[in-house]
Amino acid sequence: MAGGADQLFQVSDLNAYYGKSHILHGVSFDVARGEVISLLGRNGSGRSTTLKAIMGLVMPAAGSIRLQGRELAGRRPFLVCRSGIGYVPEEREIFTNLTVDENLRLGVQPAVAGAPVWTIEQMFDYFPRLKERRNTMAGSLSGGEQQMLTMCRALLGNPLLMLIDEPTEGLAPKIVAAVGDMIRDIHRRGVAVILVEQKLTIALKVSSRVCVMGHGQIVFEGTPGDLAAHPTLLDEWLAV
Ligand SMILES: Nc1ncnc2c1ncn2[C@@H]1O[C@H](COP(=O)(O)OP(=O)(O)O)[C@@H](O)[C@H]1O
Ligand SMILES: [Mg+2]
User: Fold this and answer.
1) Which domains can be identified in the chain, with CATH numbers?
2) pLDDT for res 234
3) pLDDT at 72 exceeding the cut of 50
4) CB under 6 Å to ligand 1: residues?
5) Which of 56, 124, 189, 211 is deepest in the core (most CB within 10 A)?
6) Nearest ligand, CA of residue 24?
């Protein structure tokens, strides 16, 4: 897909290093408005680094990152965030010595043009457990609850695009299902998602396209159906 009217986000020829280690070798993909795509791959294939490079947490050495045509490569993380990209990192990042409610309120920022607006009450509808614990210090939440809090806080930034890194890692099945529902709702309201997810069943169910990464490059791009039709791909790039 090249620059159509529904084009939202485009990464092209992204290269990134940690020190002298060349990690991303020309990563390119795009996301349409409101589209959910998954970045798949084995551990160490470069999925998290791709998200960090988009957020400006890892400085891209080369390449371009565009949201609605606007270049973001090399921008500081808070500017990337403010331009309409929400980020849920692999490591749950919450303020442990603030309450659940305070953490959520800190996530709120004005919606950029065209982005739907979310409320704290809606977050409590997704995850009633957070409502029960709204006045509790976030540091005393379980790992799963902290993960929900991180997702909700990012969504309250009213983004056009959410980057979500392994949201269901270590969660109980019931909460995994709630996270799946939330991602489908995000999609329904027109927010695009780049999902990094180890659980293939969820990734294939919620996304319209998948990109498989290997050794810091995209080695396959297609629909979940295309991926299922290439069992050798699964063996080569996804099996553990
Ligand atoms: N902070 C870091 N410093 C040095 N190397 C890193 C760092 N983070 C990740 N790497 C390396 O970069 C490569 C890609 O990692 P990552 O993007 O985290 O992969 P994935 O998310 O697909 O598991 C791996 O070889 C990993 O060891
Ligand atoms: Mg990772």
Assistant:
1) 7-238 (3.40.50.300)
2) 84
3) yes
4) 18, 21, 23, 41, 43-49
5) 211
6) 1
